Amino acid sequence: MTKTTTTMTKTMTKTMTKTMTKTMTKTMTKTMTMTMTKMKMTMTMTIKMEMKMKMTMMIIIIIFTVRLVEGTFSHEGRVEIYHAGEWGTICHDGWDDNHASVICRQLGHSNVGRATSSANFGEGSGPIWLDGMSCSGLESNIYHCDRLEWGNHDCGHNEDAGVSCGTVRLVGGTLPREGRLEIYHDGAWGTICDDFWDDKDASVACRHLGYGDNGIGLQGAKFGAGSYSIWLDNVDCSGSEEHIEDCKSNDWGENNCEHNEDAGVSCNS
């Protein structure tokens, strides 16, 4: 082999070695980068799943530490709260619709609640856990409201707080069981037109409100005219429905009425 041939062979060997080394380095770097990216993605997905599971568990715990007891329907009753391994009640001092709305929201019933007091749903028998509640009404659960320390109260069980969760209310009546019927929809209260409004419709509204099964339907804005949207018209209930929204009617907001036609209700015991 000549000197020239030997030199060429060495040069080609060096070139091939250098090229192969670069190629292998690039391939390994690319493979390692892809592997690390996949690992990061897997770790991120795992962390997100763990966070979702923790949040779900927190939501479940929050929901199942509050309950409504002794109501006729699942959306009403005496409020009981679970603490230190035992169910107890809440004193009605300062208890209002803001507090009730927070309880209803926490339980997943609605964003609107009506407060009841003086053990309207019967007296509890366990501890009185909370007193001096102060909610704005926007909280997601009762634990975010201001209050006295657990078990610190000056109440008896004849002052147990209650809640009726729903989307209807009576306004303008002399008694709590009567008034202009207003319904909550799309973030706002509104009225119901009195077209075809009768005692069957009123009885469903009374049942919805927890005032029994017998109601009298009143027409012509008997309890004054409302000032917001007229949400429902041509309501037609059979009388057996639990909620006024279960009855037949026009679509929400579809009406040919004025507020001098707002429907009213008088509930009999």
From TrEMBL:
Domain of life, per lineage? Eukaryota
Q: Name one GO cellular component term.
A: membrane
Segments forming domain SRCR: 66-166, 168-268
Q: Which Gene3D superfamilies match?
A: SRCR-like domain
Q: Give yes or no: UniProt keyword Transmembrane helix.
A: no
Disulphide-bonded residues:
91-155, 104-165, 135-145, 193-257, 206-267, 237-247
Tell me any Pfam family this protein matches: SRCR
Q: Does the keyword Signal apply?
A: yes
Q: Which UniProt keywords apply?
A: Disulfide bond, Glycoprotein, Repeat, Signal
InterPro entries, alphabetically?
SRCR, SRCR-like_dom_sf
Q: SUPFAM superfamilies, alphabetically? A: SRCR-like (SSF56487)
Coiled coil location = none
Protein name (Swiss-Prot/TrEMBL): SRCR domain-containing protein
Name its species: Stichopus japonicus (Sea cucumber)
